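Researcher: Please generate the 3D structure of the following complex. Treat every line as part of one assembly.
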Amino acid sequence: DIVMTQSPLSLPVTPGEPAAISCRSSQSLLHRSGYNYLDWYLQKPGQSPQLLIYLGSNRASGVPDRFNGSGSGTNFTLKISRVEAEDVGVYYCMQALQSRTFGQGTKVEIK
Amino acid sequence: QVQLQESGPGLVKPSETLSLICTVSGGSMSSYYWSWIRQTPGERLEYIGDIYYTGSTDYNPSLKSRFTISVDTSKNQFSLKVRSVTAADTAVYYCARLGPAATYSYYYYLDVWGKGTTVTVSS
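Model: Done. Output below.
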């Protein structure tokens, strides 16, 4: 089983400031295609999760360009260049190389 | 725009079978995979498995074989059965669509989610 570990688990942020979330996998997520099989999802309060980033670094349709995914192999990062109030919620990374497993989630809240 | 809606009992007794249905509206089930995910009270997300519109299934190997996913394209529905439930199966159950990535069509991501249905296992 591939285990996904996120840090931090809680992230107080100031609007307008940058933020970063780390995600590590117990095995490399680099597929033979050259793509990393990793997604990022955001679950806003009271809502279902929504796709932000796929294949490690591709923004989903309609996702603001302040969200950026990077990394390869076992280490990945989601960065928000300037946090806005609407970005609060729980962020999850998810591997899709072997079935699918999620990280524990990182709760982002405004200071 | 495709929408998904879960339905099923909110309360199930231990050792019974939980049955959930996801109804797909606003689009065809063809050429997509259809998934079930659950979220525990502690907010952990757990992938249960998925089914292609043709009926082929793939389950999370970490879960015991108590889960069965089926599809009925004539009704635009797919379903989940969980046998011998325990308190550990208490969760919000989501159905979702796995759609192909725009930049690499061999990759599928969870692009449409239902609102989720809360299931409590208790006597």
